[in-house]
Amino acid sequence: MPVVPLSTIVSDAFEKRYGVPAINIVNDLTLEAVLAAAVEKSSPLIVQTSVKTVRSIGSDVLHAMWTAMTAGIEVPVTLHLDHCPEREVISECLARGWNSVLFDASTMPVEENMRQTVEVVAEARGYGAHVEGEIESITGVEDGVGSDTEAQRQSLDVVLEFLGTTRVDVFAPAIGNAHGAYKQAPVLDFQRVSDIVAAHPLPIALHGGSGMSDEQFRELISRGCAKVNISTALKETYMKSNLAFLRIADERGKWDPPSLFRAVREDVVDMAGSLMTLFGSAGRAA
């Protein structure tokens, strides 16, 4: 199955109430590993790139990697630009071939956020791409974007005005979730997800997933969270796997990079595959 639009993946997940992992990759190894997990688990997958990763690797090289690794892939996958407040980066990625973007204008007044999001949606439609929107900052800093100060949540009426005006394809509400590692178990507003979905049915994006309990994931997915973002867990798995292997290599005095890459890849594949099973996306591409 070829690369598909974001809406193709999240619409089915929303209708059937399962979640699709939206995993932030950081390099070629992690990109290949999460795609391999999707094939192994017969699961749809949303591959995400942060602005930091786009700048680090370069949009041309990053998209060339994506094109090469998804050629002939057997499961539905899509490429998404995560939290991006910069219009020029959004335009660059859309022109290069990203399938969707999250225009993060959450620090702007709602009126200005809506005005610019309408423009981004129109721009994305010109490329056959989709847009995720938000009007409240998700607490925490991720790849240099965000704030540790919890933002005030908007009323349901404001949310509905935003959704109706902008016509975004996915919405990311603040529900007590946070980017990064939680210092304590998060207290989440499950009902807010249900209220939004009941008033304006559309797929919800769950941010700050790393560290939530299995029960919280399942409850939120059952209420309409079709896109489940995972970033911190990938970074921790990748770096801790490297660290563990290198400690053993140092003890043994054996330095073999291909063995390192294989070990780290296996850990990333296992992590991604376990999320696909937990979220209920495993087997959905069959």
UniProtKB/TrEMBL annotation:
The entry's Zn(2+) 2-binding residues are: 104, 134
Tell me which domain of life the UniProt entry assigns to the organism this sequence originates from.
Bacteria
Q: Where is the active site?
A: 82 (proton donor)
- Positions bound to Zn(2+) 1: 83, 179, 207
List the Pfam families. F_bP_aldolase
**One GO term of the biological process aspect:** carbohydrate metabolic process
Q: Which cofactor does it need?
A: Zn(2+)
Keyword flag Zinc: yes
Give the residues the record marks as binding dihydroxyacetone phosphate.
180, 208-210, 229-232
The protein in question is named: Fructose-bisphosphate aldolase, class II
Which species does this protein come from? Answer: Actinacidiphila rubida
Cofactor binding mode, per the note?
Binds 2 Zn(2+) ions per subunit. One is catalytic and the other provides a structural contribution.
PANTHER family assigned? D-TAGATOSE-1,6-BISPHOSPHATE ALDOLASE, D-TAGATOSE-1,6-BISPHOSPHATE ALDOLASE SUBUNIT GATY-RELATED
Q: Which UniProt keywords apply?
A: Metal-binding, Zinc
Q: Which residues cross the membrane?
A: none
An example Gene Ontology molecular-function term: zinc ion binding
**Database matches in Gene3D superfamilies:** Aldolase class I (3.20.20.70)
